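In the current project phase, work has continued on tokenised descriptions of protein folds. One protein thus recorded appears below exactly as we store it.

——
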Amino acid sequence: MSATEEALVPEILPAPAPGQYVPRLVLSAAEARNQVDAIKEMQRSVLTENVDYGMVPGTDRPALFKSGGELLLKVHGLGHHFSVVEVERDEHGHKFGVTYRCHVTGTLSMGQVVEVSTCDGYCGYDETKYYQSTTQLEARERANASYYKRQPKPQKWAEEYRAPWNTVVKMAQKRALVGAALQATAASGLFTQDVEDLVDAGGGESAP
């Protein structure tokens, strides 16, 4: 891993030592309902709609955003840290995609740090939000021009679109964090995984 990649991994809590585990507790029906009610109350009084969570077209539950995942962990007294699972490269040796693992950790009463949940998050240039070739951009621009009855703009496909690598890294980390937070706080029934709004790589209008 390069020095830049290492700098992007936040060190919030140390990784748990091998052999540590989280004791499994059996909840009664009443205790389980109380836990769900507590998360619902947190959604109402702690999380901010359209900042920490929000409705995304195509989902039947609010999507949890990165800031909401961080708040859920904080309120539950949990920490987290990331580790790099894999950095993929293309045939030319250039970085193509990355998978991060988010480790959610808790501290027991005797001070022992244990791992509560983990989740992997991937992001890469195989996603059109982060990479589009000049051919793809030209086809997109010609489709838009036809739909809006205007002339195509060649500058729209003058060069390929490639998001900064740091953006790809941060997105992989975000996906891992949200998934791990939902697992650790048993909030999957109330929230869905964060589904990012699809932003046009070329910017501006987009034909439906």
